[in-house]
Amino acid sequence: METFLIATQIGAAEALVARDGAGINSPQDLVGKKIAVPFVSTGHYSLLAALKQWNIDPAKVQILNLAPPAIIAAWKRGDIDATYVWDPALGVAKENGKVLITSGELAKTGAPTFDAWIVRKDFAAKHPEIVKAFAKVTLEAYADYRKDPQAWLADKSNVDKLVKLSGAKAADIPALLQGNVFPLASDQIAALGTRPPRPSPTPPPSSRRKARSRQYCRTIRPTSAPNSSPTDRSLSWHCLSWSASAHSTPVRPSRYWPTSH
């Protein structure tokens, strides 16, 4: 496997939220509290990085391994005091909680998290034109969004596409997009040390699959990926570090990104 494009640098789309009434007014108040997070995820990595930043021993807090739907249920019951998570669970927590730190703020301390597109090396060697076309149309969509985010979001067709691809509510799309940074070609070169293909209107594969890398990835429930083609499966989403390998598993994307598809 190899990373060929950074999808996003996670910003405010992930955050640590303390529940109102839990007695958490500062990071040090987390000691002894119950914090829910999906283990082996970007949120898990960020939570541990935040605790380290605040000189809090992870053993002195109760870190609970819960999937986002379970976090929502536990939050509504009042069973947990805080959570490090992403939407839609993040939005639920914010309704009666206070953000202690976001992944964007944490990145400034030296602990950034990313989403990345990856591909099997054998597939890339056999079909470089597909990988290049995918990268080009993705970078073009990023550039279009970054040029004027408000104008891009004002175009209902753009939002409708993301609703169809992601399953998110149309009202949630702006906050989800604005919570991340979508790297342009120059940013990709600086981060990956190689020049990605230039943007062009070449159409992408019919179905997109995301890859999350860095040191952790979000856990996600595999799907049967109906109507997926060999191309789709080769661009499947994997959970791995920058250099580790993992088996290919078709999944349903859970994140949201600008697209011209």
Strand coverage percent: 15-25%
Number of strands: 8
Measured on Cα atoms, how large is the radius of gyration?
19 Å
The number of helices is 11
Largest sheet: 5 strands, mixed
Mean pLDDT: 78
Structural class category: alpha/beta
Explain what you see.
This protein is α/β, with parallel strands linked by helices and 261 residues long. The protein is built from eleven helices and eight strands. The chain has a five-stranded mixed sheet with strand order 4-3-5-2-6, with helices on both faces. It has a three-stranded antiparallel sheet with strand order 7-1-8.
Concise structural overview:
With 261 residues, this protein is an alpha/beta fold. 37% of the residues lie in helices and 16% in strands.
Features:
261 residues; alpha/beta; three-stranded antiparallel beta sheet; 11 helices; 37% helix
Write the layout of secondary structure elements.
Layout: E1 2-10, E2 14-19, E3 34-37, H1 42-53, E4 62-65, H2 68-77, E5 82-86, H3 89-95, E6 97-102, H4 103-107, E7 114-119, H5 121-126, H6 128-147, H7 149-154, H8 156-166, H9 173-178, E8 180-181, H10 185-192, H11 230-234
Parallel strand pairs: 3-4, 3-5
Antiparallel strand pairs: 1-7, 1-8, 2-5, 2-6
